[in-house]
């Protein structure tokens, strides 16, 4: 079996006396989607910040291509092939699609004092990169703020793929989207997977996770409820565990007793 692109083993993170994450383990393989599920406060944000280099873990191991490491910053993570698309997308709404696509990595032409932004190359590269992902925008000159939420997510995914990401982390990409737009984003998540990337999909919606994921990591209050391969868990069981099945059953029993 090939070495995972990324792996965490019993990873933990503390903020003073607060335990934000404890004994969490999972793997991210090339050409697979690992989905991290949990309610608010489950530890999803802490985990992805560790994977993205924004936080360093205090316990356990973090391995890249089988080598234990600690990322010093998000820039180091990006340089090592880990691209993270946060909920706010880090875009400038009034700038064009192509300017946002190359933000911080603008192509130039000329040299010395005559060096300048290569607008033509940037526009053509953006158009081609989006087309390669099956994304058809009206005009890459339009402000990115005029795009729908789903289209902005797709542009961010295409940008990460274009700049050579090996691991793509998506933070709640469908959280604020309608049913149709969420479906469009999930289609591009599947396309990124099919291009050989390892994808980490963060969500609280098991119905969005189940169609595209190969593996499910369930978090609750900073702890892992288990990491399951898709053949080992059904959507119904995933939903039950997400909803706190045992707690809901106990509450239902208690309420029945109160009514009777």
UniProtKB/TrEMBL annotation:
InterPro entries: AAA+_ATPase (IPR003593), ABC_carbohydrate_import_ATPase (IPR050107), ABC_transporter-like_ATP-bd (IPR003439), ABC_transporter-like_CS (IPR017871), P-loop_NTPase (IPR027417)
SMART domains in UniProt: AAA
Pfam families in alphabetical order: ABC_tran
TM regions (residue ranges): none
Record keywords, A-Z: ATP-binding, Nucleotide-binding, Sugar transport, Transport
SUPFAM superfamilies, A to Z: P-loop containing nucleoside triphosphate hydrolases
Domain named ABC transporter: residues: 6-246
Gene Ontology MF terms in the entry: ATP binding; ATP hydrolysis activity
Protein's recorded name: Simple sugar transport system ATP-binding protein
Source organism (scientific name): Crossiella cryophila
């Amino acid at each position: 079996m090939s070495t995972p692109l990324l792996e965490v083993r019993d990873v933990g993170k503390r903020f003073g006396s607060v335990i934000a994450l404890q004994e969490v383990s999972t793997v991210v393989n090339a050409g697979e989607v690992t989905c991290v599920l949990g309610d608010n406060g489950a530890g999803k944000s802490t985990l992805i910040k560790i994977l993205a280099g924004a936080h360093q873990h205090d316990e356990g191991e973090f391995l890249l291509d089988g080598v234990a490491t600690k990322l010093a910053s998000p820039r180091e993570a990006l340089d090592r092939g880990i691209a993270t698309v946060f909920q706010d997308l880090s875009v400038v709404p009034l700038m064009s699609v192509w300017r946002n696509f190359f933000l911080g990595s603008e192509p130039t032409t000329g040299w010395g004092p005559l060096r300048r932004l290569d607008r033509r190359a940037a526009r053509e590269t953006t158009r081609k990169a989006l087309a390669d992902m099956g994304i058809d925008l009206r005009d890459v000159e339009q402000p990115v703020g005029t795009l729908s939420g789903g289209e902005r997510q797709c542009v961010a995914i295409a940008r990460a793929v274009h700049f050579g990401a090996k691991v793509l982390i998506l933070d709640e990409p469908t959280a604020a989207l309608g049913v149709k737009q969420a479906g469009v984003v999930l289609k591009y998540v599947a396309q990124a997977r099919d291009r050989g990337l390892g994808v980490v999909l963060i969500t609280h919606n098991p119905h969005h996770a189940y169609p595209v994921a190969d593996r499910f990591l369930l978090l609750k209050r900073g702890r892992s409820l288990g990491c399951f391969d898709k053949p080992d868990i059904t959507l119904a069981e995933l939903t039950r565990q997400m909803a706190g099945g045992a707690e809901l059953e106990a509450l239902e029993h208690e309420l029945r007793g109160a009514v009777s």
